[in-house]
Design a protein that fits this description.
CATH superfamily of the largest domain in chain A: MetI-like
Oligomer: heterodimer
CATH architecture of the largest domain in chain A: Orthogonal Bundle
Largest sheet of chain B: 2 strands, antiparallel
Radius of gyration of chain B: 24 Å
Order of helices and strands of chain A: HHHHHHHHHHHHHH
Shape of chain A: globular
Low-confidence stretches of chain A: none
Number of helices of chain A: 14
Distance between the termini of chain B: 37 Å
Number of strands of chain B: 2
Strand content of chain A: under 5%
Order of helices and strands of chain B: HEEHHHHHHHHHHHH
Largest sheet of chain A: none
Largest interface: A-B, 89 and 92 residues
CATH class of chain B: Mainly Alpha
Helix content of chain A: over 70%
CATH superfamily of chain B: MetI-like
Number of domains of chain A: 2
Strand content of chain B: under 5%
Low-confidence stretches of chain B: none
Shape of chain B: globular
Chain lengths: ~280, ~290
Amino acid sequence: MNSTSKTKRIIYAFLLSLLLLLWFFPFVWMVFTSLKIENEVVTKVFHFFPQNPTLANYIKAFSSSKILRWMLNSAFTSAMAMILTLVVDAPIAYAFAKIRFKGRNILFWAVMAGMMVPFQVLIIPLYLQFNSYGLINTMSAVYLPRIALPIGIFIMKQFFEGIPDALEEAAFIDGASRFRIFSSVILPLGKTAFATVTILSFINCWNDFLWPLIVMNDTDKYTITVGIANFQGTHGTQYSLIMSGAVIACIPQFIFYLFFRKKIIAGIAMTGIKG
Amino acid sequence: MIPGNKDNRDGWLFSIPFLLVFVLFMLYPLVYGFVISFFKWNVLSDKVFAGFQNYISLFSDEKFYTSLWHTVEFVLITTPVLLVIGFLMALITTSKSPLKKVAENVFFIPYIFSMTVVSTLWAWIFQKQYGLLNKVIGLVGIQPVGWLTDPNWAMWSVCIATFWWTAGFNMILMSAGIKQISSEIYESAMIDGANYRQSVFRITIPLLKPTIVLCLILQIIASFNVFGQVYVMTGGGPFGKTRTIIQYIYETGFSYFKMGYSAAMSYILFFIIMIVSVVQYISLGRKSNE
């Protein structure tokens, strides 16, 4: 009995380490490659560790591409998406949760049905639409179609429903209007839900690829996702250079993750449990 | 609820900002796209009404079928594998292992990186002459494989990169589900002498069913929309063997400027995704009623 459970434990530990290794190793490989000189990468000899570690690739990545610019573009568009998502989605989420108005149910289901529409289906009409507004190749084209986030409404609605009615009723009796209640009672309480939604919206916009690829034509205006794809395309076989670009592109998201780990995970879990 | 209240007015007022955006960037393009799909339109030239011509042409367009098939292939490969890996990872991160926190981070971090970073990294690992994978299998004497250039391997390679990238998402959903299962159930099963395997198959999986079904739905929809990783890693090659339907929609629209044709294709894809989702929702509803 004891010996079998011991072997089982060893097998379990082995599988766990294998899976961990498989998942961790590509990162290591990305960083190591970026620290190697070109000749060491394109060779039949296999060195795992960089023999002459160098930051030359990083310097070259910054000087030969607009990688910093691309990151700023991504930061700007994602931040705009994040802010506008809240401005637009929070009031309706509150209305769904707390205001009994005519047509509420129909409206709610219409919005949730919107969740079913894959964004990719809309790219042609959206492009033509933005083209006719003269917004192609502008930053606003990247984030505007991203701010209607039905899942965000859903999360905030769940949250607002949890706020006791008594709080609002007290304010009503004092003669406060809906807007007053929303801005001074509800909004301060909603911080956790807002954090979750803004983070989801930020990731959503930051990682978008197809849409910015379509609407942005100047290399100056690329987001980092499009920029890195372009960087890979133009540097063909300079793998250590490409990997240094990839590492640079990872850094903001990694920092973001370190700060908001719990919120990101909670946000995803929430869409799962309540969905 | 309050006499003389203005709920009807306020409800709609609070909805206005969202509704504007919703109508402008979702409903309108949805309808507009549908209208365009009945026109022959090359952007530079005038729109010409073509009736069902675009849809009819689609059904005799071999590239359309093969692209659609590649997407379906991707869905069929990635969905079951990603559910199983996600579940295994969730078992690890909800276990008592001292490594569970580390594991959760390691498994999840790829998901927060953007698809293009992940794709360039894996394109490098899969590189034929100097890539890591061929060097590793070379150590045991296996000939280098063109992971991304061999038609037999390209789709699988893209799928592998995708496993690495998104399995962590399913892990989070499933471990959240597992954490909701009361520990008392496991304790009483242990007292009754159930071993680990039995408790996974008899308790965890049955009780996790709603979460698993949700993962399945989300995964299928996400996989149907595959584009970026294939586009960056293989460009749809070799010989169009990995071209997905989204890529074909993109190329038709933005390389050949056939807007109507491209829109028609989008609608077929939309239709397929709708049917798949509806079938899933119905079967999900039936199961929860049982």
